[in-house]
What we know:
- By secondary structure, the protein is an alpha/beta fold.
- The protein is built from 17 helices and 26 strands.
- The strands form 5 sheets. It has a 9-stranded mixed sheet, sandwiched between helices.
- It is globular and about 65 Å long.
Amino acid sequence: MTYKPATYDAQMFIDTFEHEYTWLNGFMRNVRRYGNKPALIDPSTETTWTYKELDEECNMFAHALKEDNVGKNDVVMSILNNCPEFCFTYIAPRKVGAIITLANFKLSPGELARLIEHNEPKIVLYCAEIRDTIVEAEKLSAYKPLRWIMCDNLDGLDLPLGHIHYKDYVANHSTEVPAMDFPHHIYDEVIRMCTSGTSALPKNVPLNDINEVLSAHDAIMHYPLNCKDVCMNMTPLFHRGGSHSGGTCPTFYIGACLILLRAFSPRVTLNYVEKYKITFLTGSPSSLELLARTQERDPQDISTLKGLVTMGAPLEKAACERFLEILTPNIFNGYGTTETFWNSFLRPYDLPEYAGAVGGSCTDDEVRVVKIYEDRKAEPDDLVPMDNETVGEVILYCPSKTTYSYYKNPEEQAAKFYKGWMYTNDLGFWDENLYVTINGRKDDMIVSAGENIYPTQVEEAINEFDRVADCMVTAVPDATRGQAIAAYIVPKDENLTIRDVFDFCLETPMLSAYKRPRWYKFVDSLPMTATGKKMHYALKAQAAKDLEAGELKRK
């Protein structure tokens, strides 16, 4: 096909859009517009940063990075809780062209070591509360970063040998904007998220600059969010839903104020809503339940709330009706992935009628339910009937908020992304309005307290125990976490006890605390296919019965 030339001179638009339409430029506009307006508040230390002060802090950090020769496409790894340094790290590396890798501070030393080896960061920042984990990860990692920086040192812990405090690292550096002597492009990778993998190495999700801008726009548009709002996220900011839903990404891009909640507590959360006049609160459905209980017992003035945003699980209708009555009439329920942010949304006008579903597509996205085949992916237009009954795989079209890629993981990339769609492995059905309901997974992933856990990784770690012949893990219902992990153990040593296995899980550097089984059962054999593959779906059904019958044991 022969295309006609453009009807106008598009070069200035192309140059401006591709090189200037960045998240950092959006933040800098707010520094100029709202320099004396609060941008960030840390209630635990009663410290406030205006937009001007936040920018100056980030400039000092950026100059320190430049002094360490951190530049275009170098990696700065953040292993931080919801502390001020997380926010500084979210912004400052962009000023030197570096990539920020956001890691889960709950990972074990062995998992962090693999993540460090995979990403090869020049600089690693970590929170003081995981000091001992970092020391062990440093020993285990074959790759050695240039610099280890301990942040948020609230408890006065001694520095590990060769490490430096954040305040000392940035001290005496200029507060002026550093010269940006590197090319910008909206396709530059600026953030690298980490999502669960089947091994101890999480999948690494690159996000480019235009993903950041359009993710911010998505949240701003759907809330809607403006510069007068005050936001607080009840979940860890290193998650996509943490930083991109009411966290650093949209809040600083629109010029609103972010309140830091270091660890979720319903009483503290409600107090902060009243004290700081919070307008948008983000968290999981389980956190909303705890807020509702606390508000019923001891009501606070939460009248400033314009909305509660929840992700990670569907809202049950009865719970939704209760939250609408006790907390706020405006509840939003988003569904999505680390790779794609949220892609469907239940707005206040959808609730409580559609509670239990994940809703209809976001404005620029499309969510479909396609047929399932054993030997291949369904084509994106190979749809199941819209009868609210026929189950298929949920796929996501999201050109604005994903790069459709994983960092150095071509096998997973090929498995997940196809023709502009992400194949989620979630199972669901939909109705004539294209509203989707999730009812399971194609794979065996466990979701416990908002964290994704793959059984194979836990099994691999437990099978390192020389007194275990084999094991399988699965999920059982848990009132607090949604799901808890149950381990079925085939002993190699007849004297093996549950306490022995529990202690091994506690001590191995390859299992994070949230991945350790809570329930155990010793068995003679495990359910296998004729070809020797573990049948997790069969074990999951059995585990629910065993839990009810009291056959699963705690340590």
